[in-house]
């Protein structure tokens, strides 16, 4: 099968997200100018550089009570900071709850029954018991092709890791089983891994 996106795919559901899988989930926490916390999952998310460490996430769509964007992007534009919370399998229901379209000014931490903790380097909340959290200062917000599509880039200025996830000097993903986004309504979790040595190592 071949299709051109501009012509449509002819399938019952769009296969694009199912092709680009698995995708890590950036569970992005922000705070608005009034001090209200916000939390939302983004599966167009990844790390993009080591030195300095940098991450990105893309926001698509908008809410009627925000100006052609979503709460996360509006808050980052106002404050210049955000936090990426690592999503684990055990928190899947809470993560799903924070994906609801709620009015601005609603605290998704409270909505999902999550405990917020203050970040160390930025004025933002993080999920207190997340396996890891990356405190970020926004470096760029880049408009993308299409309506209400933006790319947010940030430099990581602080890293939290839960103690039980550090084993033998390594951050062990099997200790918490990362949650990944697949296509459609599908998710996956990491339950095993294998190692390969690169030819030039």
Automatic annotation (TrEMBL):
**InterPro entries in UniProt:** Flavin_Rdtase-like_dom, Split_barrel_FMN-bd
Q: Which GO terms describe its molecular function?
A: FMN binding; oxidoreductase activity, acting on the CH-NH group of donors, NAD or NADP as acceptor
Return the SMART domains for the record. Answer: Flavin_Reduct
Domain Flavin reductase like positions:
18-173
Q: Which Pfam families match?
A: Flavin_Reduct
Q: What is the name attached to this protein's record?
A: Flavin reductase family protein
Native source species: Antarcticimicrobium luteum
